[in-house]
Amino acid sequence: HTVPLSPFTFHDKLAKLIKNKKKIALKSIFIDQLELPSRIYNCLKMSNIYTLLDLLNNSQEDLMKIEHFRSEDVKRILG
């Protein structure tokens, strides 16, 4: 009997990135460099999310609370 492992969560990925000392790099990648659709980009900016680190510091639930943000947008970002 095998138990399927759950996929890594968003916060597990963030913790691993920070452990690997990527924090400085994440701070220097701005969301306008991510080639996001303009509506998603504008929603993030209105929520004071400017860098990849800012984005990763938000949970999926936090992102869903952003005004005019849809579940498809979250899926697109989290890939």
UniProtKB/TrEMBL annotation:
Signal peptide: none
Keyword entries, A-Z: Chloroplast, Plastid
A family per Pfam: RNA_pol_A_CTD
Superkingdom of the source species: Eukaryota
InterPro entries, sorted: RNAP_asu_C
One GO MF term: DNA-directed RNA polymerase activity
GO biological process, alphabetically ordered: DNA-templated transcription
Every RNA polymerase alpha subunit C-terminal domain range: 21-76
UniProt protein name: RNA polymerase alpha subunit
Origin species: Nicotiana sylvestris
Gene: rpoA
